[in-house]
Design brief:
transmembrane; Sodium/glucose cotransporter; 77% helix; 29 helices; Na/solute_symporter
Length: 678
């Protein structure tokens, strides 16, 4: 057991439960996903021995599954544990700023995704886009930045998840760290990106179901009883333990200095985590053109409710019942190490639902970390296979060779991530430390990467140097502020709020200045022709369907042989305009119009307002549940399940072939059909 995380609280579950969930359940999920992958191959021709299927699912994933996958990609164990952590530290403002720091960049990525679909439709990773425009030196720079991003992202997930599983079951924290990725590596090894989409769906449904259960169970627990009673408990806790930096020292206000500083760290760091995470680009490339913008927009807005509702309810339970004998740590408050290890959520669940609640938290932690790890693993494996092996060692690599190196990437990255997380654990880092400092190392490439797709003027020199200078600036500011405010540079001082805020902001925004100065002051600004992207043949097979939208397919049938490229471009430009609108609207709504007036007003929640706040959050959460369960099924899922059942029983085509043979024999036709249906 992790003694740092809570030696005074005995694990409510046995080690056997921990190993069953982490190992046995992981292997079961992996086995089911591998079976489904083989079934899809046998019945409808989805052959994961083909690179385009393994890496991009033939670029035909529909809106419903894309939206579900987007929610899952951001549904880290950190989101579940961290939203309750900041709620405990800062009050109701904490979970709101956590949620507001996640949704805007997901929606913004719809703009990047559709821009890539329009300008370079054959790409597999964002790094290929960088190499095509700027060459190999820039490619190597961004390759390193993306790998650093993935490594720290995985460490953040594993540190929080392993600490919680250890505290709830007594399982050794290092055993949990190495065993958690086991099932992930197996089904990603076999199923590729389509297995990631399918497990995303399954895991997200389970996580949101349990989150909805906790949102109701909290108010049926006798010591809470109602939202009004929870308000009274939190108000009394504010009187006992006033919060420094909050209006009137209360948990019941959006006027929280430390919460808004955390919000700045979080939104900057998350922009880095999204834009520098190649898994988001891979999922955008895997989606059909008509699915990218609505999928990412719906997913981003739906996601907001999960950390907001779950974090608000469960942190309020912890704050309100901490002085009650029913709480695990009674008669003392939770220690700093317990809070920073992410134990607010499991302790609250244990309080209101007993050992079953603890088991539910272990389950959703496992589901969250394995689902998001699968996206990280497939992202890194794509970098190793496409951006290292294919680019620098074998330009004529076959499907089999690329997939072999993808498998090497899967296994190698899983082992390295577990080892790196173990190293951080032994030097004293925990969930809160990685949550706060993450932006310092993930942000330098945000704007240079976005400029690569959206700004034709950025020069090669600016693309190469601006993220390097940005990283150096961010690290210098972060460590300098830690020394200035803390008197020394240690794990503790570098995890404080102010050094992380200044370091993250410097890391995120200094590359804008560096890029603009280097572009206009040194050399001649580019006037890049986006059409040059299409001169590079990146796909290992023909993927014309990827560049077409459903309406374009109809145009093709109406006027066979007619050049439809202008209409295809116009359709994707229309989606880009829609993505731009929703990106701006989401940012203004979640970050400006809604929270900032509440911050400036110093308003303290009354009972009626708190009740409305919680009710709206819970309704939003339940709508998210309906979306993640039913939208993928309605949007093609039921149809594909029906096809699998029909073809599993050997239904014959008109030519007497099995349906699977027909699907395997005409992959391009199948891709066109799926895009049209989407």
């Amino acid at each position: 057991m992790d003694t740092r995380a809570g030696s005074a609280v005995q694990p409510p579950l046995s080690q056997a439960v921990g190993y069953v969930i982490v190992v046995v359940l992981g292997l079961i999920v992996a086995g089911v996903m591998m079976f489904i992958t083989r079934l899809l191959n046998r019945t409808i021709g989805e052959d994961n021995k083909k690179t385009e299927m393994f890496m991009t699912a033939n670029r035909t994933v529909r809106t419903g599954l894309t939206a579900s996958a987007v929610v899952s990609s951001w549904l880290w164990s950190t989101a579940l544990l961290g939203s309750s952590l900041v709620g405990y530290n800062y009050g109701v403002a904490g979970p709101f700023w956590f949620a507001a720091g996640c949704s805007p960049m997901i929606v913004f990525f719809a703009l990047l995704g559709v821009s890539c679909k329009r300008k370079i439709p054959e790409a597999h990773t964002s790094l290929e886009v960088v190499r095509v425009r700027y060459g190999r030196v820039a490619h190597v720079v961004f390759l390193v930045l993306c790998l650093v991003n993935n490594i720290f992202a995985c460490a953040n997930m594993l540190l929080g998840a392993s600490a919680v599983i250890s505290a709830m079951t007594g399982m050794h924290v290092i055993a949990a760290t190495f065993l958690l990725p086991l099932g992930v590596s197996l089904y990603t090894f076999v199923g590729g990106i389509k297995a990631t989409f399918l497990t995303d769906y399954f895991h997200t449904v389970v996580i949101v179901l349990i989150a909805c259960y906790f949102s109701i169970k909290a108010f049926t627990y006798s010591e809470v009883g109602s939202i009004g009673q929870l308000y009274d408990l939190v108000r009394a806790a504010s009187a006992r333990n006033p919060v420094s930096g909050n209006a009137q020292g209360t948990y019941l206000t959006m006027t929280s200095k430390d919460a808004i500083l955390f919000g700045i760290i979080h939104i900057c760091g998350n922009f880095g985590l999204v834009i520098m995470d190649t898994s988001y680009f891979i999922k955008a490339f895997a989606a059909s053109p008509a699915a990218v913008v609505p999928g990412y927009t719906i997913g981003g807005i739906a996601y907001f409710a999960i950390p907001w509702a779950l974090g608000t309810v469960m942190s309020s339970v912890a704050v309100g019942l901490e002085n009650n004998p029913v709480f695990p740590t009674y008669p003392r408050r939770m220690s700093t190490s317990e809070v920073s290890s992410g134990l607010v959520l499991p302790y609250s669940a244990l309080t209101i639902a007993g050992p079953g609640g603890a088991a539910a938290v272990v389950l959703i932690t496992f589901m969250a970390v394995t689902s998001t790890l699968s996206a990280q693993v497939i992202a890194v494996s794509s970098i190793i296979s496409f951006d290292i092996y294919r680019e620098y060692f074998n330009r004529d690599a076959s499907d089999a060779q690329i997939i072999r190196w993808s498998h090497v990437g899967v296994v190698g990255f899983v082992l390295f991530s577990a080892a790196f997380s173990t190293m951080l654990y032994y030097v004293g880092a925990d969930l809160q430390w990685t949550l706060y400092m993450l932006g310092v190392v993930t942000c330098p490439g945000i704007f240079p990467m976005a400029f690569t797709v959206l700004w034709r003027r950025q020069t090669t020199l600016a693309a190469i140097l601006s993220p390097i200078l940005g990283l150096a600036t961010g690290l210098a500011v972060w460590l300098g502020c830690a020394y200035r405010f803390g008197g020394s540079v240690t794990v503790a001082t570098t995890g404080e709020v102010l050094p992380c805020v200044y370091g993250t902001v410097a890391s995120a925004f200094s590359p804008i200045a560096y890029s603009v100065i280097l572009t206009f002051a040194l050399g001649k600004p580019q006037a890049y022709d986006w059409a040059q992207f299409k001169n590079e043949r990146l796909a290992l097979g023909k993927i014309d369907s990827d560049s077409a939208s459903p309406s374009d397919q109809e145009d093709t049938h109406v006027a066979s042989g007619e050049n439809t490229r202008p209409s295809k471009d116009n359709e994707l430009k229309r989606w880009a305009r829609i993505a731009t609108f929703w990106s701006v609207a989401t940012f203004l709504g979640h970050w400006v119009i809604w929270p900032l007036p509440m911050y400036g007003s110093h308003y303290v929640f009354g009972k009626k307002f708190f009740t409305a706040w919680v009710v709206v959050a819970i309704i939003w959460l339940w709508l998210t549940l309906l979306m993640v369960i039913f939208y993928p099924l309605i949007d093609g899922g039921i149809e594909q399940i029906g096809q699998v059942f029909k073809q599993s029983f050997g239904k014959k085509t008109e030519k007497g072939e099995s349906a699977a043979d027909a699907a395997n024999g005409d992959g391009i036709k199948n891709a066109h059909t799926e895009v049209k249906a989407g």
